Amino acid sequence: MELSRFPAYLAGRLVKAAIVVLAIVVCNFFLIHAAPGDPASIIAGQSGAADAKFLEQLRAQFGLDQPLYVQLWVYLKGVLTLDLGFSHRQQASVAALLWDRLPATLLLTGAAFLFAIVIGVTMGALAARRVGSWSDSVITVLALTFYATPLFWVGLMLVLLFSVTLEWLPSFGMMSVGVELSGFAWLLDIGKHLLLPALTLGLFYVAVYARLTRATMLEVADQDFVKTARAKGVPEGRILRRHVLRNAMLPVITFAGIQAGQLIGGSILVETVFAWPGIGRLAFEALLARDYQVLMGVFFCTSVMVVLFNLITDLLYAIVDPRVEVS
Amino acid sequence: MTRLLTVENLTVGLPAGADRPHAVEDVSLHLDAGEILCVVGESGSGKSITANTVMGLLPKGLPVKGGAITFEGEPLLGLSAEAMRSRRGRRMAMVFQEPMTALNPLMKVGDQIAEALAVHGKGAEAKARVPELLAAVNLPDPAAIARMHPFRLSGGQRQRVMIAMALALEPALLIADEPTTALDVTTQAQILRLIREIQQRRGMGVMFITHDFGVVAEIADRVAVMQRGRIVEQGTASEVLNAPRHPYTRTLISAVPHGRASDRAAIGPEPVLAMKGVTKTYQRGGWFGARAVVKAVHDADFTLNKGETLGLVGESGSGKSTLARCVVRLVEPEQGEILFHGANLRPLSRQGWLPYRKRIQMVFQDPYASLNPRRKVGDAITEGPVTHGVSPAEARQRALELLRLVKLDPSAMDRYPHEFSGGQRQRIGLARALAMQPELLIADEPVSALDVSVQAQVLDLLAEIRQRLGLTMLFITHDLRVAAQICDRIAVMQRGAIVELGPTAEVFGAPKHPYTRSLLDSIPGRGWTPPELAEIS
Amino acid sequence: MRGFWRNFCRNRGAVVGLVILLLVIATAIAAPWLYPGSPWDMAGMPFAPPGEMGMMLGTDSLGRDVAAGIAHGARVSLLVGAVSTVVALVIGIGLGAIAGYLGGLADDLVMRFTEFFQTIPSFVLAILLVAIFTPTIGSIVFAIAVVSWPPVARVVRAEFLSLRSREFVQASEVLGKSRISIVFGDILPNALSPIVVLSSLMVASAILLESALSFLGLGDPNMMSWGFLIGSGRSVIRMAWWMSVFPGIAIFLTVLSLNLVGEGLSDALNPRLARNRGGKA
């Protein structure tokens, strides 16, 4: 895309993102009402944690005695001012709980994403370069294996191997308990804790990116403009870098945007396995406690994360591909 | 004259399981500097494979089995990959058929030309040379074009960029592989002129691959005709074009539409179809921002009389297909009257249209897309009549007769479309339309996707059936020679409007509109009249 | 049909996958005879390692037979996988067909709706749905279907969109065939192969999704499932590795076999593409 059109494009995408976020809030609202029973008691949870006073407070907060559209309005206003409700269980506002856990989740998903895209694209490019060789077969088999293995089980098996049997790496938490560390030692400690969860979350996507890169590189390598490059005497290495790889990255960027939601969903499982103190772990705790207020907060928060990530990949795509127009 | 390129006894294998053992067999040809050699043949004749072998661009799986290629006095076939690469682009260059896909969509065209210079160590000159080269291929505002990405350019402009890129290092040999096949006729004429001009100015040798004898007549010094991997005839252009010796060449040349109208019975003023003020516009663009409105059809009135064939002629995007599709309600125009025997069809609903479906039928362009791959030929022909209440037995009987009429074996009934060739499928499509016993037949480029010899057969069949069944026909084509041969009257379309309409002889003999004149001037090989050749048995 | 079978068999992985899948299905069917009685009942000592005390795959913390759990869990996994895929196919094909065939405004609306569902994190939504509607087999199937139809809708729409403008469909219009007979006679049969391939992959991902839900404790409390087995083994992995290892292998084999079969189907339905196929993603 040309730079002059970029602001208009950005504005369009922001409007779209805002609409999606709004729709998610509405969706959240109707989910509570679709559930059988009194919304207030559902929100409060069925575990008996809710006393009558809290239920009253909830009814007032959501305006449950008023018509549906008023309730929706009240709810929307709440969410837009980042008032996501109050967790009776944890005695804290949902927004504060989420805010507290956000950095850990960002660290985990970010690390897993980078790991997946770097290793996956490299593997895929190598496989495409040597179609039919043993390295191609190994990559294909690895990809199939990771495709078929449940994420949480991979986590458990890694724990079994690296923590229980070999005792190399810690199996839970984000940092060592009971030790005060600072500076480089602190970073190293977090890094050690991060390694297994990030690996677990990333392995599946390594497989996905490897396969996608391999497939698109083979497809692009067949296209006419590659032949043009060859006909003008461009060396093979340069053809691969400047012509094939650049074009093959377009579907990878698109896919990165599409799978962002899955990555965050996967982090719930991984955080549960490794007791990683992020939003996923919070969701699991809320699930055990039937703390729906928190659960809906998690849904809202993760959705916003995905929308933002999609926004970034869209912009990236528009920068790489000149054909994207303001629509 | 210096001998630039010699190909001797070249044989290239095909992978196991192909329809013949060799893609190219025992091919010998030569090319001098300053000469244009046309390699002619139908699809699959091995002409592109020959060119790609010279360039060292054969796909994997096609091994060179024997022969020698000498270029500028050096044998090419034994050279290392690196030695070939250093010659490609520098000493020999190539232009391809599809301008829409031959350029990297993510790179500015200037950078793509500069890359050709850079990989041969002339990167420093790029800044000055790129605009020069773009100017040399007659592109306006070269500096601006250099900064554009390919998607902003038209097909003709892209092909010019390709040529500029090929010329960047002033190669001795240019191979052009059907460079104008994907282009409109006026653009084709410009590109042919450009290639000829540059070739003469620089004394290049050009190997020009084409399937079109008109193009050969336009550009060739010498001609080599290929059939099933072999060269069957070689000679100077005038020899091959006007006195072909080999039977295959004779068949090909006699199949070239001769553009002579056949004698036809006089047609009385008995209107079957009249289009009045039909307008169709397309809108592009989203919910925000400016919408681009494209008038696909406007000012396109015509009347079609009983038994008459009217040709709608124009380049791609002229609206001729849209107009034809309006007649059968595949496109719904927003204004105007479509009068069929005086009844306006435009306001009719899907249901109201049903009775007219029997009377107006259509034949399509693409023989590979116009038949449902999962339906047997017999079912494809009978389903129309059965939908309209004919008993299956009767419909089947009629289908058998129709197969005979379009010269296909009755056993075709129980076979699937993929078992037939392009020309045969086109006859099946014709039989499907005729099964409805229509009065009016819309033929949308029915021979454009066919090889020239097959094209001639289908055209003859169409003419014969029209005569026998007394059909009225609306014939859409971009090929003026074809139009001249089959149509009583011609309507020339440009940008959605009919700019000239008249009897075929008048339109061709004394064109009034400047656009018609430029179209006629662009017919490749217009100075050449295919010789009348005795039938070869 | 014979050509289809031959092409399928040319892909050796697909044949292996089909064999594994048939074994899993056989186990699921035979579970009540192989392991009579409820898999929830105590069968031996708690924490018996595999091979000891007549327990092929060991027992869990309450002395339940892991092998029995896996056999009975196969029923739930396959059932949930198949039923939720069917539901997702119905939704996806319906919406995709409407968008692709009608085009215009209908297309716009359906696609915005589909994009919305693809944007929201599907697993989180599934958790929320199952949690709010209380975990039962019905709510699990519903939740999985709700989050897995968008790819179907997209594929079907793309196919319909391209087929609708194909000349043989236009020919049917000109012949005066009804919309229904065009959609079901001309378009759908030609759009079927990608749908078939996609659905085998959807069953696989539905099984993964179900196991993930029951791992988090959102399984149907009355039905034994693989995810539940792994979940209950998670906290005792240091002393009873077999509790999580074997059910995981069961999931892996089942999902792998479905993926392999999917690739075989894809090769068999598009023989031309098979030679150079890079991947399904």
TrEMBL record, chain A:
Its main location: membrane. Residues 102-317 form the ABC transmembrane type-1 domain. Keywords: Cell membrane, Membrane, Transmembrane, Transmembrane helix, Transport. The chain crosses the membrane at residues 14-35, 106-126, 138-164, 184-208, 248-274, 294-320. PROSITE patterns: ABC_TM1. GO terms for biological process: transmembrane transport. One of its GO terms (cellular component) is plasma membrane. It is a multi-pass membrane protein. It is found in: Cell membrane. InterPro entries: BPD_transp_1_N, MetI-like, MetI-like_sf. It holds the Pfam family BPD_transp_1_N. PANTHER family: ABC TRANSPORTER PERMEASE PROTEIN, DIPEPTIDE TRANSPORT SYSTEM PERMEASE PROTEIN DPPB-RELATED. Belongs to the binding-protein-dependent transport system permease family. This is ABC transporter permease.
UniProtKB/TrEMBL annotation, chain B:
InterPro entries: AAA+_ATPase, ABC_Ni/Peptide_Import, ABC_transporter-like_ATP-bd, ABC_transporter-like_CS, Oligopep_ABC_C, P-loop_NTPase. Keywords: ATP-binding, Cell membrane, Membrane, Nucleotide-binding, Transport. GO terms for molecular function: ATP binding; ATP hydrolysis activity. One of its GO terms (biological process) is transmembrane transport. The keyword Nucleotide-binding applies. Transmembrane segments: none annotated. GO terms for cellular component: plasma membrane. CDD domains: ABC_NikE_OppD_transporters. Residues 5-253, 273-520 form the ABC transporter domain. Its main location: membrane. It is a peripheral membrane protein. It is found in: Cell inner membrane. It comes from the Bacteria. PROSITE patterns: ABC_TRANSPORTER_1, ABC_TRANSPORTER_2. Belongs to the ABC transporter superfamily. NCBIfam families: PRK10419.1 (NF007739), PRK11308.1 (NF008453). This is ABC transporter ATP-binding protein.
Automatic annotation (TrEMBL), chain C:
Keywords: Cell membrane, Membrane, Peptide transport, Protein transport, Transmembrane, Transmembrane helix, Transport. The keyword Membrane applies. GO terms for biological process: peptide transport; protein transport; transmembrane transport. It is found in: Cell membrane. The chain crosses the membrane at residues 78-102, 123-147, 195-218, 239-261. Belongs to the binding-protein-dependent transport system permease family. This is ABC transporter permease. It comes from Teichococcus oryzae.
